[in-house]
Amino acid sequence: MSDGDNTNLYNRLERRGYTGKKLQDNVQCEIFQTIYEEAMEAYKEEIVHQLPSNTPEDMESNLEQIVHWIEQWMKDNN
């Protein structure tokens, strides 16, 4: 998503009455979705993951998963 796309999205959401945090959250969500889609196109599907970060427990679980992936990669590549 280019800066122009971000500006268009921002303006469209503003016209819908989105303001403040709600506006910011929606723009951020759109950006992350675009990044995910681009990663799916650029890399093997099995190495692209979306990790929910809705709660502190999600974030703790994500951290544990990422550490596990790093440790496994180090075992496999050293």
Automatic annotation (TrEMBL):
Entry keyword annotation includes Lipoprotein: no
InterPro entries referenced in this protein's UniProt entry, alphabetically: Adenyl_kinase_AK6, P-loop_NTPase
UniProtKB keywords: ATP-binding, Kinase, Nucleotide-binding, Ribosome biogenesis, rRNA processing, Transferase
GO CC annotation: cytoplasm; nucleus
GO BP annotation list: rRNA processing
GO molecular function, one term: AMP kinase activity
Statement: the UniProt record of this protein carries the keyword Kinase: yes
Protein name: Adenylate kinase isoenzyme 6-like isoform X5
The species this protein was found in: Carassius auratus
